[in-house]
Amino acid sequence: MCGDIESDETLAEDYYQRFVERTQKFLSSTKTDNSNTTDNLYNYLDNLFRQTLSATTTCDETNNAITGYERISMEPLVYARIAGFIAAHQPIQDDPLRNLIEALLTGYAEGESTASNIKKKY
Length: 122
What we know:
Layout lengths: L1 H28 L10 H16 L12 H20 L8 H26 L1
Helix pairs in contact: 1-3, 1-4
């Protein structure tokens, strides 16, 4: 039984390391220079996305009781809560829930495509 716990912890850490590698690969593959574009809103949103995603791979050294895997398994709940809070303040005719779900599915697809690209190399 003790081996099972250790193996679960090792597996969780492997998942976290894979997440970090995929995130870094995704961020480097999508790195673009948007300074030439005139759409400041989309530049801002792209930068916000990249900064937030990058922050998920930065482990908080002050709290060693929380593993990287524990953080990434719970952080989506926080981001979903923030998205819901912001969406609740949008005009209903803008259909904020639909926009939120579309963005969620886009992010899921990006994560999956990064994962499948890495699998093809190995």
